[in-house]
Design brief:
CATH topology of the largest domain in chain B: Rossmann fold
CATH architecture of the largest domain in chain B: 3-Layer(aba) Sandwich
Shape of chain B: globular
Largest sheet of chain B: 6 strands, mixed
Strand order of the largest sheet of chain A: 1-2
Helix content of chain A: over 70%
Number of helices of chain A: 11
Shape of chain A: globular
Distance between the termini of chain A: 5 Å
Oligomer: heterodimer
Distance between the termini of chain B: 32 Å
Number of strands of chain A: 2
Radius of gyration of chain A: 19 Å
Helix content of chain B: 25-40%
CATH superfamily of the largest domain in chain B: P-loop containing nucleotide triphosphate hydrolases
Order of helices and strands of chain B: HHEEEHEEHEHHHEHEHEEHEHEEHEH
Order of helices and strands of chain A: HHHEEHHHHHHHH
Number of domains of chain B: 2
Largest sheet of chain A: 2 strands, antiparallel
Number of strands of chain B: 14
Structural class of chain B: alpha/beta
Chain lengths: 262, 326
């Protein structure tokens, strides 16, 4: 593959919908365990920490700790939903089951396959975000109608982490490879993005790093929206997330072409 | 084209193909295809021409470059140099249009394990932009062809290896392709399953479809292919009809000999047959007339021998050597 073709921007066509529908059909068969798997972990953490730690901490900047944590967890659970889909599930389809190989033997391109994976990751993020939102709303911690604006935001968070996840997937040698990304990138990102505690608690020198993390910007949008406020610097946060989404997907496209088409 | 000429010389009953002579556009044509991975050149200047309706075999030991050649023909990877036309479309530039009319049976089954038999066909048909309704209407016919009638609702895990292979073949036919690529279609199947696949492939040829298959089973190539190319270390070593290749490259009779005292007998054998080869403890005598060899062997009580007509495997081994390939 020539350099110009390798680095060409992805050619997006609506054919990716067929890939998305394939993933949707699989998911429909496994929906209940899939949703439970996606939700159980963040919800247990949210309720455990929110009520347990919240009782010790009292109020945090005028809101309960549960409410504070809820905003962080909506963002982080969508991050994880998109990430797990593009790491483990996409790797199974690419490398183990050779589903991608089957698809590109039809009149489909690798760009179509990746676009389908990307859209599907955003869909999983959307499902996780909506479920979290529903539970949080049921406990009275979501202020409607503005809380509904969280829905498109989780899609954007899903696209940002879906793109990054697909790029990591293109480099993976096996499932174990993903633990590097999860423990060395995502776990520190959780700590630095204001999910558990306000970023103001972080030493100023490190706090600068927070500002470049996509999750930080997701949290900065979701948390105020849940409590019924318009986020400050909304456009800037959206722009960073959109930038990560576009750059991540482009990187994923180039790396996957290099892996499979060279 | 050299191969067409040599087949014609051998007076084969199977039609050789020369696109320019017939005036028919080839279903597949490649010129000087090259592809390297790192320092290793995997495909080193491959020229192929396959006529519509042919069953063409690409033979070669493991690592000969067969699968890479197929991927280049499908436009799935870009060649370093050379060109390919598939059903008249330049690939990889217009590979999407070409693949819309092509079916592929990959070397390893990649059916969707989460789906039923019918769902596999429907989902695959969608990649060709076929409407669910149209695919559903074709499913009974496809399953009938694959010997899977009544199994539409079966889970993939419940299918045997042969059934999965047949379903993969049915899946490759979902778009009614003009041309089918099959990468080792019967590897790993038992004889019953293999014969059924062969039967179906013949049926597809009779329907006028072009078949291009890779295999390292010579028996398969000899039975199915109207013409074939033997590939080794990225190069096409020879092309022609199976019979033409046998008569061109090898003596018509073979005697395989083994047993105690083979060392001593080997020297005598060289006077009895024009070509003698040794592989481990077995001696192969190739000749048009093997009567002198047999007469001599009748007096050698210790030695065991088998007399048989030469086949494609002998040609293959002569051209690609007996060394193991991994």
């Amino acid at each position: 593959m020539t350099r110009s073709r390798l680095y060409a921007p992805p050619v997006l066509s609506l054919r990716f919908v067929a890939v998305w529908r394939r993933h949707f059909l699989v998911w429909r068969k496994l929906a209940v365990p899939s949703i439970l798997g996606n939700l159980a972990d963040p919800l247990i953490m949210l309720f455990g920490l929110g009520y347990g730690l919240g009782a010790v901490l009292g109020n945090l900047g005028g809101t309960s700790y549960f409410a504070f944590l809820a905003g962080g967890f909506v963002a982080s659970s969508t991050m994880y939903a998109a990430t797990f889909e593009t790491l483990f599930s996409a790797f199974s389809r690419m490398h183990v089951q050779k589903t991608w190989e089957a698809i590109v033997n039809a009149p489909m391109t690798l760009d179509d396959v990746l676009a389908g994976e990307w859209a599907w990751a955003a869909t999983k993020a959307l499902a996780a975000g909506i479920c979290m939102l529903a539970v949080i709303a049921a406990f009275g911690y979501a202020s409607f109608p503005l809380a509904l604006a969280v829905v498109p935001v989780v899609v954007l968070v899903g696209l940002a982490f879906g793109g990054l996840g697909l790029a990591i997937n293109a480099l993976a040698t096996g499932y174990d490879f993903f633990s590097y990304y999860l423990t060395l990138v995502l776990t520190p990102m959780m700590m630095l993005s204001g999910v558990f505690f306000p970023v103001e608690q972080i030493p100023a020198a490190i706090r600068v790093a927070s500002k470049v993390l996509p999750l930080y910007h997701g949290v900065e949008i979701v948390r105020p929206l849940l409590s019924g406020a318009i986020p400050q610097a909304l456009m800037a946060h959206l722009a960073v997330l959109a930038g990560y989404a576009a750059a991540g997907f482009y990187l994923a496209t180039v790396l996957t072409r290099r892996r499979l088409m060279m | 084209m050299q191969s067409a000429g040599s087949s014609a010389r051998a007076g084969t009953d199977l039609r050789p193909f020369d696109a320019r002579a017939i005036g028919e556009a080839p279903a597949l044509e490649t010129r000087g295809l090259r592809k390297s991975y790192g320092a290793q050149e995997v495909v080193c200047g491959v020229d192929l021409a396959v006529a519509p309706g042919e069953c063409f075999g690409l033979l070669g030991p493991n690592g000969a470059g067969k699968t890479t050649t197929l991927k280049l023909c499908l436009g799935l990877i870009d060649p370093d140099s050379g060109s390919a036309r598939l059903l008249g479309y330049e690939v990889p530039a217009r590979a999407r249009e070409a693949r819309a009319k092509v079916g592929v049976v990959p070397q390893f089954d990649n059916l969707d394990p989460d789906f039923t038999v019918a769902e596999n066909l429907i989902v695959y048909g969608r990649y060709f932009r076929l409407a669910d309704r149209d695919i559903e209407a074709r499913i009974p016919q496809l399953l009938e062809f694959a010997g899977l009638a009544g199994r539409a609702g079966a889970k993939i895990q419940t299918l045997s290896g042969g059934m999965k292979r047949r379903l993969t073949l049915a899946r490759a036919l979902v778009n009614e392709p003009q041309l089918l690529f099959m990468d080792e279609p019967t590897t790993g199947l038992d004889p019953q399953a293999r014969h059924l696949i062969w039967e179906r492939l013949r049926q597809l040829t009779q329907e006028g479809r072009t078949l291009i298959l890779t295999t390292h089973f010579m028996e398969e190539a000899e039975r199915l292919c109207t013409r074939l190319a033997i590939m080794d270390r990225g190069r096409i070593v020879t092309q022609g009809s199976p019979r033409a290749l046998i008569s061109e490259h090898i003596e018509s009779q073979v005697v395989e000999v083994h047993g105690p005292g083979i060392e001593g007998w080997l020297e005598r054998a060289r006077d009895l047959a024009p070509r003698v080869e040794r592989a481990g403890e077995t001696v192969f005598c190739y000749a048009e007339n093997v009567v002198p060899v047999i007469d001599d062997l009748r007096r050698q009580r210790e030695l065991v021998y088998l007399h048989r007509p030469a086949n494609l495997e002998d040609v293959f081994l002569k051209l690609t050597g007996r060394d193991l390939r991994d």
